[in-house]
Amino acid sequence: MTDMTERNRSQNPDGDQDSPQLRKPARRGGGDPGNRGRTTIADGVVEKIAGLAARDVLGVHAMGSGLSRTFGAVRDRVPGGSKSATRGVKAEVGEVQTAIDLEIVVDYGVSIADVARAVRENVVAAVERMTGLEVVEVNIAVSDVKLPDEEDDEPEQPRIQ
Q1: Which residue from 22, 109, 124, 153 could staple onto 135, CB 3.0 to 4.6 Å apart?
Q2: 93 contacts 43 by C-beta, under 8 angstroms
């Protein structure tokens, strides 16, 4: 009959059976280190990305409703204040998907359908590239049209003060 300790020992080159068998070190964590753990992305992160991507489209004059733009213009004039990248943007973020609602003001004379399509394409591309989330929908509400003779609610700030 064989003892369990004898079965777990190996012979060394001298024929001695007293040395313990060498084991390979156990691999801890398993799998690719880049896949260990969980990444969560806040709604505000997606909102900023979407807001900046929407503003990049030619024909988008501003983001948000008239009231939010008015409050934003006041906030922007306060020392230390800055333009809100999330104005006019609302995002709902899940674990793998996101849905985005945008409120935009378009320039007079542009095709609203073309601007909306370009905004959707730009927002989806930017959000999916930067976050890895699937954008399931981008809803766009056009709240106003900027006429050529209207004054801006948000005057351009000089670069040097």
Answers
A1: 124
A2: yes
